[in-house]
Write a structure and sequence with these properties.
Helices cover 33% and strands 22% of the residues. By secondary structure, the chain is an alpha+beta fold. It has one domain: Gcn5-related N-acetyltransferase (GNAT) (Aminopeptidase), CATH 3.40.630.30. The protein has a 5-stranded mixed beta sheet. It is globular, with a radius of gyration of 14 Å.
């Protein structure tokens, strides 16, 4: 497996990957939003390549204080082969280089598979926190 930075030409393949992996796509997951992401921290939006095909992706974020992980997805037939863990570890490494001391991953409560995955690689549930949000645009 090879990991490289996402390129805007990858968008249709990565979007299909997100859907195949069961991610719920939101208005912020459109092509224009991917372009904005690349302007901010393109080095944290990664894809995994195997046999010249994109088989996984992860979107990392850095707010100057903490790191964030979003949209970790691996093609269903390639899951449980270390691809997801490899992508997360690469994002973690890049976040440490930026100065991050902590990283958070956002996982929906109903997504037990993702919760178990993150627990298996050392992440802990934060039971005293709740996620709240507000949509600013469609």
């Amino acid at each position: 497996m090879k990991i490289r930075e996402f390129k805007i030409d990858d968008y249709p393949i990565v979007r299909d990957l997100w859907q195949a992996a069961g991610l719920i796509l939101r208005p912020g997951d459109e092509l224009e939003d991917a372009k904005l992401k690349l302007q901010r921290d393109s080095d944290l939006f990664l894809v995994a390549i195997q046999d010249d095909m994109i088989v996984g992706s992860v979107m990392g974020g850095w707010d100057g204080r903490r790191g964030w992980i979003y949209h970790l997805a691996v093609e269903p037939e390639h899951q449980r082969k270390g691809i997801g863990a490899g992508l997360v570890r690469e994002v973690e490494k890049r976040l440490v280089a930026k100065g991050a001391k902590k990283v958070n991953a956002q996982v929906y409560k109903w997504n037990e598979r993702s919760s178990e995955f993150f627990k298996a690689i050392g992440y802990e549930t934060q039971p005293d926190l709740i996620m709240i949000g507000k949509r600013l645009r469609k």
